[in-house]
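To illustrate the input format used throughout this study, we show a single complete record. The first block contains the structure-token representation of the backbone; no residue identities are included at this stage. The design step must infer an amino acid for every position from geometry alone.
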């Protein structure tokens, strides 16, 4: 299991520096300067106790504090990454504490070169680095104990937070000071073999659970200190709108309002508390310049244009082999279908917020963010400071789903502008209506597919045209993610689908129109809509071929063992083929995303409701092959979360536009799943030694298809549009 090559480990160990009296072994990150040179904030965070590297410190009371390079937003890395360090350190799990790391190059993502959280990458990207952090600390503690006891290190062992030899036991806290004075090990420490793991792979309760239950956990909205004011910003009601002029006389008369300032995003009312800021904002009179999108943004008009592009073809080619058009003419049967998914909001339970305090040579930011490096750079640009003079205190995130990871650092940049204009510490708060009506969205997509089947019902020709906005165009990620006009995130799960790749004659095309609506990644990104389309299409093919949907998929995936393993496990645990109570049916979907393979079986019924039928989901069975599950409890929780998140979008959520404005505003008209609608969920983890994948996002991708396929199996219509609606 020791897959980090020796030269890499050696470079890791040699990049050391002394900070605050403790030895810091800086981890090398592509494109990042050394931690000790460029991270004074991180150095301060590690100055107390024994800090053998940038990721942990040990105090004399035996507590081991893990510095989390990623943001905890409910996905469980507060526990999962701590398990990696504790495993190699042989720490006492009851003594483990966790803190979010400061923004510093040492904490840059091992693949992306910037400090960030996203793409279901946190665990696999840190699997070597965090274990090495624990192993390095253990080696230094053994060396310190060897000197104190006069016993060769080879005769020492570690267990549960102590070094042990010949009946003598030295706690890590007793050795911390001596270990801090030692140089880094001359040779890279050896990581444990998997057979010796005591924590990794074992179900483990979350470390952040107790403090979230009793209220000790601090989210961005909880930040408060003397002199802190609260602001709300009036933003243009139409995308692209700007302030022509404003009258703030009534706003300034509201008790508690301290100031009204104009910022690039609109007009901010700064007050003693939220209610005063909101009342003051409501009292503003603003003359808005509507911008170019006031009349053009209408969802019906956009959909018609998307349909025209899909029918016209001729988009950028994402995948092509053979002659699909000729093969379609030879097919025994042709399936033609058009699928549509709407714009979606992220709608995290904790609305956006950001607290900023600016001094002469320092800017402090408190917020729940997924993009520390970009936010730090943006704040430096606005304030005229150097990035290392901007300190970001990452709080717990009350949900993110991608919204707190914007390439423009929109809500953080706005808060810095407000604090700068006000000249005081300010917490800028968005209401949920602010974010639903003026945030970033999962883009709308329309897809048109033609699938030719042979006499056995197997696909022999496939064309598919996708139409929707690129989330990468115009961002710093565009050069890497958009090639020959194809945004890889737009076509993920389609262009690389094993179903399509298995067809000798196929063509996948993409149109990426620009609409003026700001779009962004949303949980499971392109897979969120492509999983629905692909698994619905393959279900259509199975029924057109007169074959069982599970058996049909097995035949097409016979050369894809990880897909098959997940599919077989889910089908077995769901009792596929067994008799159900009258009025119920099952639907299946299997999809790979973010390196994990998910199969789901939904059990549904239809109930009478005003204007049609209501889909009731009773049971969801999920199987996942994510490679090694560091914390199986965490993986199960993320599957449950992804299913409920995806189910709300499948059944209810949509954003519509008219006259350049979003028509929805809050949970009463932008519906998400409610507690009494949540199905019974069973999660089964495939025993796998394959490459590790993610868990935060993949569970969402197959949900809508599994439900839609169950509705069809129940005798309902073939549902090709989200949210799923069954007419009377």
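Output of the design step:
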């Amino acid at each position: 299991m020791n897959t980090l090559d020796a030269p890499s480990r050696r470079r890791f160990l040699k990049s050391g520096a002394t900070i605050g009296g403790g030895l810091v072994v800086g981890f090398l990150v592509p494109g990042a300067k050394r931690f000790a040179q460029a991270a004074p904030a991180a150095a301060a965070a590690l100055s107390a106790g024994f800090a053998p590297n940038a990721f942990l410190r040990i105090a004399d009371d035996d507590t081991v504090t893990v510095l989390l390079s990623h943001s905890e937003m409910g996905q469980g890395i507060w526990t999962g990454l701590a398990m990696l360090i504790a495993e190699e350190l042989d720490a006492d799990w009851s003594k483990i504490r966790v803190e979010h790391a400061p923004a510093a190059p040492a904490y840059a993502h091992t693949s992306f070169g910037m400090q960030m959280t996203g793409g279901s990458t946190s665990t696999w990207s840190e699997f070597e680095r965090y274990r090495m952090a624990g192993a390095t600390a253990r080696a230094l503690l053994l060396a310190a104990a060897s000197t104190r006891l006069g016993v060769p290190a080879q005769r020492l062992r570690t267990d549960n937070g102590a070094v042990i030899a010949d009946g003598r036991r030295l706690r890590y806290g007793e050795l911390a000071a001596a270990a801090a004075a030692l140089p880094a090990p001359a040779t890279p420490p050896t990581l444990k073999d998997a057979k010796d793991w005591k924590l990794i792979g074992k179900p483990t309760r979350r470390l952040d659970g107790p403090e979230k239950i009793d209220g000790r956990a601090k989210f961005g909205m909880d930040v408060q200190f003397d002199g802190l004011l609260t602001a709300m910003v009036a933003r243009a009601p139409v995308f692209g709108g700007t302030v022509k002029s404003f009258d703030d006389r009534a706003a300034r008369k509201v008790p508690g309002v301290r100031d009204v300032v104009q910022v690039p995003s609109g007009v901010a009312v700064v007050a003693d508390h939220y209610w005063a800021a909101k009342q003051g904002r409501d009292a503003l009179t603003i003359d808005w310049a509507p911008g170019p999108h006031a009349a053009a943004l209408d969802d019906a008009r956009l959909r018609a244009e998307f349909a025209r592009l899909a029918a016209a073809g001729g988009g950028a080619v994402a995948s092509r082999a053979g002659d699909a058009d000729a093969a379609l003419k030879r097919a025994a049967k042709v399936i033609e279908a058009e699928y549509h998914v709407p714009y979606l909001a992220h709608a995290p339970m904790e609305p956006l917020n950001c607290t900023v305090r600016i001094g002469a040579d320092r800017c402090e930011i408190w917020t729940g963010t997924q993009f520390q490096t970009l936010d730090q750079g943006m704040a430096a640009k606005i304030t005229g400071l150097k990035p290392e003079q901007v300190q970001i205190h990452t709080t717990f995130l009350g949900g993110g789903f991608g919204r707190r990871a914007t390439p423009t650092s929109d809500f953080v940049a706005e808060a810095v502008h407000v604090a700068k204009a006000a000249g005081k510490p300010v917490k800028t708060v968005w209401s949920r209506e602010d974010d639903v009506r003026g945030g970033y969205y999962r883009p709308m997509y329309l897809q048109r597919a033609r699938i030719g089947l042979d006499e056995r019902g197997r696909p022999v020709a496939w064309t598919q045209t996708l139409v929707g906005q690129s989330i990468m165009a115009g961002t710093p990620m565009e050069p890497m993610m958009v090639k020959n006009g194809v945004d890889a995130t737009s076509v993920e799960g389609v262009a690389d689908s094993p179903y399509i790749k298995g067809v000798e004659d196929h063509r996948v095309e993409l149109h990426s129109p620009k609409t003026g609506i700001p779009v962004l990644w949303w949980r499971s990104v392109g897979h969120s809509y492509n999983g629905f389309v692909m698994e619905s299409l393959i279900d259509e093919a199975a029924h057109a071929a007169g074959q069982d949907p599970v058996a049909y998929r097995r035949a097409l995936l016979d050369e894809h063992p990880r897909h098959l393993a997940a599919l077989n496990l889910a089908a077995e645990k769901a009792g596929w083929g067994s008799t159900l109570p009258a009025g119920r049916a099952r639907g299946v979907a299997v999809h790979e995303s973010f390196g994990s393979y998910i199969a789901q079986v939904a059990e549904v019924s239809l109930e009478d409701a005003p204007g049609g039928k209501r889909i009731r989901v009773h049971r969801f069975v999920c199987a996942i092959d994510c490679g090694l599950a560091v914390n199986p409890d965490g993986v199960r929780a993320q599957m449950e979360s992804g299913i409920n998140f995806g189910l709300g979008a499948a059944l209810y959520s949509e954003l519509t536009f008219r006259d350049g404005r979003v028509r929805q505003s809050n949970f009463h008209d932008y519906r998400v799943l409610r507690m009494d609608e949540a199905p019974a969920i069973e999660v089964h983890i495939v025993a796998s030694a394959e490459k590790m994948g993610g868990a935060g996002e993949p569970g969402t991708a197959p949900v809508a298809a599994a439900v839609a396929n169950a509705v069809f199996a129940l005798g309902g219509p073939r549902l090709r549009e989200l949210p799923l609606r069954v007419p009377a």
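Structural context for interpreting the output: The first strand starts at residue 16 and ends at 19. DSSP finds 22 helices and 34 strands in the chain.
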